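Pipeline run #58 for the internal structure catalog. This entry was flagged by the ingest filter as a single-chain record with no existing model, so it goes straight to prediction. Upstream metadata was stripped on purpose; only the residue string is passed forward. Reviewer on rotation: M.T. Logging verbosity set to normal.
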Amino acid sequence: MTKEKDVKSMFEKYKPDKVIHLAARVGGIKDNMDHPADFIYLNVMMNTNVVHYAYKYKVKKLIGILSNCAYPDVSKSYPLKEEQLYDGPPQSTNFAYAYSKRVLGVQIDSYRKQYGCNFFYVIPCNLYGLHDNFDEKQSHFVPALIRKIQEAKINNKKTITLLGTGKPLRQYLFSKDLAKILLILLEKYDGEGPINIAPKNENPSISEIAKIALKATDSTDINIEFDNSYPDGQYQKDLSIKRLNGIIGDFKFTPLSEGIKKTYEWYLKSIISYA
């Protein structure tokens, strides 16, 4: 996706009517802090090429995917509403990635305004689920947590160490829920973005999520320690889904404990299959 000729060839070969643009270079806090140039360059190149050639090849509808980290680090009110997106700078730990997502939003709005493209974008909260990235250095919090729990079990350890203080608040969305919502929007929505996507009434702390995961994986005998020499990242970034509800109606989201259990079971099967 970062090479213009490859993206052009892809559109020429498949000639899609509709596109959901999910491609991205992603990672956890440490990965973002260690590789900011990779995050800004790779994501801006992907986004620029995909949106431009979607226009060139007359794609009837495109949905771009932003991230809630694109919102300001500190906002005047919570949950965050779509009109607050550009109210201030993003959090410093993932500044480059956050700005690449803001640029995607600006590009989509610009192509819609100048060319009349039926393009819009959504802003999901933190994601997790089956087929996630469990890499030790690049994974996000939930897959990293699941990996640490399983490794503790294998090695008969009674303590796992998580980075930061455990105090920040996070909304987590099961990936299958996002997929279902995107398909609904693809069929029935033709308006402008952005549209927040997040489970309602869920905004636990990192510490609380860790405890939910221990219970969901039958690992309540394992203790949790926090290494507060590492930064927490953004303290709070929960999203208002009033606009989403007005478009698709009430949606039954997968509870966090259920989603983590399903993800853990998939992870165990993937370990066995690659052993």
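catalog note: Residues 4-274 form a domain with the Rossmann fold fold (CATH 3.40.50.720).
catalog note: Residues 36-56 form the longest helix (21 residues).
status: ready for reviewer M.T.
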